[in-house]
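Structure tokens please, single chain.
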Amino acid sequence: MGRYSGRSIRLILMCVLSLVIFAVEISVAYVGNSLSLASDAFAVLSHLISMIVGLFGVRFSRIRWHKASTFGFSRADVLGAFGNSVFATALMFSIFVEAIKRFINPQKTEKVLLVLIIGISGLFFNVLNYVIFMDCCYCRAPPRDSETGK
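Here you go.
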């Protein structure tokens, strides 16, 4: 069997697609002066970071403890999730501040059709990402019996 399972390959594919979508959206947001497209691009970046952290967290959490690391890396996924949430919070705050600036001093969006097309493609990408992620999720819970709750 290869180094990566089907789940890992799909997660890596999602990371590559996310990187491409981020690059396209942030470029068009800059050219079109669109805050909404830039915020979606950074949301895609946040998802990309969380997928990478999840991929490495799952890999590192399998490493057992030894003398150099007494707890092993069992908390690597938790630490990664914390770092990603701090990044997402800082990103949200910076977008909020930029939105207030734009509310006070409105700016015209340039190349509206291009921004719209890229925005719609970003929406389709997010839906595709969701469908792929739900199929390869590492944290899928086993089905429970509705009568016993177990």
